[in-house]
Amino acid sequence: MSVAAWSCLQDVKILDLSQLLPGPHASLALSQLGADVIKVEQPNGGDTIRALGRNAFAQLNHGKRCIALDLKSDDGRESFLRLAREADAVIEGFRPGVMERLGLGYRALSDANPRIVMCSISGFGQTGPYAADPGHDLNYLALAGYWAIPAQMEDVVARPRLRVSDYAAASYASLSLAVAIMSARQSGRGQHVDVSIHDAILAWTAGSAWSAKCAADAGLCTPGVMPDNDIFATADGRHMVLGIMENKFWLSLRECLGGDFPELLSPQYETRAQRQQRKDEVHATLKHIFASRPLAAWEDAFHGSDVPFSPVLHAGELFDDPHVQARQVPRSLDENACLAARFPVKFSAGLDDVSARVASIGQDNDAVLGAPVWPSRTGPV
């Protein structure tokens, strides 16, 4: 079935050499939008993420055809170049210089196919003093000032629950690839797209980090730290979020809870500026209030109100959330009923799911490498 017959990516062909998260997430997004992605893995072990379990691999690689090639061998290189002649793009996630040592750098790919786009996703990019350095998500976050940005009244330096910088790089990579591929189809000339994971997360942190630099002496007085926009513990050990920014939401909170907690009605808390001047006492007041009742009681108290309140959901609760269900975000993959997320944007023209199939290492070698031309997207997978 066609994923998106209207999509300009419908007949785009992509070879994905990348592993773990950034490259596979970028190619998954392009696949969900209509591109045909072939995942190229090493014969022994495949993508490193396979070692983390079938679910981890499936989340990022469902719907892709998978082949295994030894790119250090002459036969493997020749097979890859033959595929590259018919492809629109190659995604790779090695350290700078590895593709050149394999004889598959941008110049070699361009000689084989002048309109090909090569997207290199690396920790620090292809140039610069850190280019050859190893790293993973936490390293890039640390160097991009992620923890330099004040965020909470009781702030701590702790690892994020997601690989934030990896997802940032994947987003920029997929966007840039789509533009570069379409541009190459117009001009007949491809290009080398250099995606630095560090650059990508720095693009996200730079604005807030600069504000923090300019207010370096302010500490918790910086405007970005708000006593009523935070996470609070409840009496039963759960947590809830209060997302007040506009003053109208404080007034809604006061209207909702002021009868039981008259301290919220203090005229000293009337405006955002007043609350910012009394951050410690406002935060302490809210912390004490929310610790006095279990989460379910706060869900009842805020139900139907105009207060930006949210419970912090457990993994077991998330997929049963009625809004998640109504938006049809999760979908099942293959026979193991592993859940993955659909492409998160709704198109009025429609966007069908990519195949739920999760291929094993080299499962599609015969179909892909034995074919004289690239199979049609609408053919069997």
TrEMBL record:
Coiled coil (residue ranges): none
SUPFAM superfamilies: CoA-transferase family III (CaiB/BaiF) (SSF89796)
Swiss-Prot/TrEMBL keywords: Transferase
The keyword Transferase belongs to this UniProt entry's keyword annotation: yes
Entry keyword annotation includes Membrane: no
InterPro entries: CoA-transferase_III, CoA-Trfase_fam_III, CoA-Trfase_III_dom3_sf, CoA-Trfase_III_dom_1_sf
GO MF term set: transferase activity
EC number from the UniProt entry: 2.8.3.19
PANTHER family, A to Z: ALPHA-METHYLACYL-COA RACEMASE, SUCCINYL-COA--D-CITRAMALATE COA-TRANSFERASE
Annotated protein name in UniProt: Acetyl-CoA:oxalate CoA-transferase
Species assigned in the record: Cupriavidus pinatubonensis
